[in-house]
Amino acid sequence: MQGVGWFLRRAIALSTITLTISEYVKDGLTHIDISQVASPGGITSTEDRILDWVYRDHSDRVFGEVKGKSRWVKLDDVDDDDFLKKGWDDLEGEHVQGYVESKAGGWTADQVSRSGLGLGIDVE
Fold this sequence. Notes:
By secondary structure, the chain is mainly beta. About 10% of the residues lie in helices and about 55% in strands. The chain is built from two helices and eight strands, in the order αβββββαβββ. Strands 4-5-6-7-8 form a five-stranded antiparallel β-sheet. It has a three-stranded antiparallel β-sheet with strand order 1-2-3, with no helix packed on it.
């Protein structure tokens, strides 16, 4: 449950979430910037990823204090998690892997996606 209370989960379930995703290259590194808006209410959050596999701190309105890292990866190089490797049409191309650890909640999330779109998520 990642430390998210019932009330907030219910509010999210009743909201429409709009994502705006920008992917670009700056100084030789791919960036994926994600802006989320929940309606009604207009609650916003942003997540900026740099695909260099370096941990960065992030304060998230829902999940609290986390640290995460992202990279381009081939499915064969995804560490010890067969779930994240299954169901892909493109087994040879590069995918985006994002890994997040909660600083206080004791949970992790490992995600593999194609061009930043969250399609395979494994939460512990």
